[in-house]
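User
Please review the sequence:
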Amino acid sequence: MSVIEMKVPVIGESINEVTLSQWLKKNGDFVKIDEAICEFESDKATLEFPAEASGKLIHIAAEGDDLEIGALVARIDTSVTQGDASAAAASPAAPAAKVEETPAASASANYASGHPAPAAAKILREGEVDPGSVRGTGKDGRITKEDAAKAVANKPATPAPSTAPAAQASSTASTYVAGERAERREKMSRMRRTIANRLVSAKNQTAMLTTFNEVDLSALMAFREKYQEQFVAKHGIKLGFMSLFAKACAQVLMEMPDVNAKIEENDIVYHDYVDISIAISTPTGLVVPPVKNVESMDFHEIEYAIKGLAAKARDGKLTLDEMKGGTFTITNGGVFGSLVSTPIINEPQSAILGMHAIKERPVAVNGQVVIRPMMYLALSYDHRIIDGSTSVTFLVKVKELLEDPIRMLMRI
């Protein structure tokens, strides 16, 4: 018998441990070389682990296990051919030794089609839908996020239990019956643990302060409305607020390098480029992949870059290279209805801009009270490197560009 050991590979310089989030192949399955057998969740992304040879798969690690780089994940018996595996599956021989599985692993054994993507698996789990009942439309029958959402939406309604016994009991008993007080415990995902650690580190390791301002978006909204149709006709994508905010920030960051810098030990590292990390909400947590060289990009290029990163993030397909870097971050809590908040710095960066909901409010303009679409802006910054006057000036300059967007085109 020739057996190959499958170990956690080196993934990146800063990654020392991963979590086995999902087996894609059952214990005892015949697998082909380069076929994905499981998925690892690292601090930054979800990665598929391919088989190094063809043969019978023997599980060693279990779903949910935290594994160090180099740890044993599985073995592959290369002496077993696909024909042998098929014959063994069809033979009514004595059952193999029982392999203890987690609930997630048991569910994966019933898949009628391909396995679900990480985001799809979470949707199915929360919607209490068996993956085995879902037909995947993705590559190799993989269940996509859209497949999962549709399956949950079309799930047959469970008949409500009859209330007659309860009603009868309440009419005959005067004793108070407390409601259910069930609890459940779930292990934090690796991404959630990483987010938690980074947020605590940012609070403890930086001298973080936040300055606020408000921006009148009347001119910006009129600008978008006037040119939107022509913009879409030429570039095939809509002009959104995020590209306008990113471009305004990039212009001011090039003028004020302190806000675009970072601290490394006793040095300040300045950047002559602007890579803006865009906060994207995913089913497994918040990720902040950067759009690189925003200072040199046109609006449509920024829009396509953000759209591409967002799609990959929500499908769990961001690569480690796509997650690296960033000199400044923009987060938009307004899409969830936030009116004002204090964003936390994305280390090792020194500043982050928080966008919020656009609300029509009465404001004074030239001595008159008028209704305008207003947004609160928040800039959190590391006071070790950015002075208070610098932070306030930066936010005022961004506000001025947004209130007069033609200045962005003229770079003044």
Summary: The chain has three domains: 1-105, 110-156, 208-410. DSSP finds twelve helices and 19 strands in the chain. Residues 93-112 have pLDDT under 50 and may be disordered.
